[in-house]
Amino acid sequence: MELRIDVNPSPQEVEKELEALRARMKRRGDRLYGLPQAATDVPGLVLRYREADGEYYVYVVDEARDRVAGYTVFNRLVEVGRRADPYVRAPHSKYAAPYQRMGLATAVYRWGLDAGLCLMSGARQSEGAHGLWMALARHYELGYVEVRRKRLAYLGKHIDPARRADLHTRMVLLGRGWTLPGYMAATGMARAGFAPAQH
Predict the structure, then answer these.
(1) What 3-state class would DSSP assign to 140?
(2) Residue 67: helix, strand or coil by DSSP?
(3) Domain that holds residue 119
(4) Which CATH number is 54's domain given?
(5) pLDDT tens digit sequence for 142-192
(6) Nearest in space to 132 (alpha carbons), one of 109, 149, 160
């Protein structure tokens, strides 16, 4: 399958950013100081998280080595309209090389999905990110949507390769507690070829 490949920063750039984040977490008065935390299945690693303007930031901290292993941000999307905005978040992650392939991003995505967040892929994905979405689709409902003129249209669970390669086509993972009909109603999502209901 052809992927729309994202451009990844160098390992050195990622390390520098993560070091700066850890320094901020230790600085009294910084908004990253004293963040709430949740346990992980990996000994010594914890999640620290915060919300700002409807976006969620989840940092994986290696307490034993006193460093930030990486983070995921669940971003709002400018491509969707006001009605869908509360129900659509696009995850973007950066993890230091020694912590990749440990399932950390999977754990963070599951944390968000289990909290009821519904996730939408970006216009481009790395091969690793695509594999992560496919793995999560075994546990959460995945479908394809088209995003055009701030409107969402549901394309189905399976689409042809040409449509999948279109930059307007995205994947959606439904968080815990959501059904497809409920999600379509909340976001004003139409089925492809039909106009959405007006509110």
Answers:
(1) coil
(2) strand
(3) 11-191
(4) 3.40.630.30
(5) 999 999 999 999 999 999 989 988 989 999 999 999 999 999 999 999 987
(6) 109
